[in-house]
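tool=predict chain=A
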Amino acid sequence: MARQAIQYPTEILSALGKEPEEFEEEARLLLALKYYETGKLSTGLAAQLAGVSRSTFIYLVGEHGLSPFGETPDELEESLANARKAFI
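tool=predict ok
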């Protein structure tokens, strides 16, 4: 896997109280979550970016308040309501 370094001021580490490895791991996860949330990456590719397994990433999606189905809770409720109407 090709890896490029992202440059960032050391003051960021101080402000967040993080070590470089911890910051970089968290930054990769947050970036992967954002790309997944915006539909730019699938769960598999986002998991690769985050450096975790796909199943772990799906769990983390839920932990961060996102839908592992790619829809918001309101969108899921609307889809369920429409499905119920179709069967009545």
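The mean pLDDT is 87. Helices lie at 10-16, 20-37, 43-50, 54-63, 73-86.
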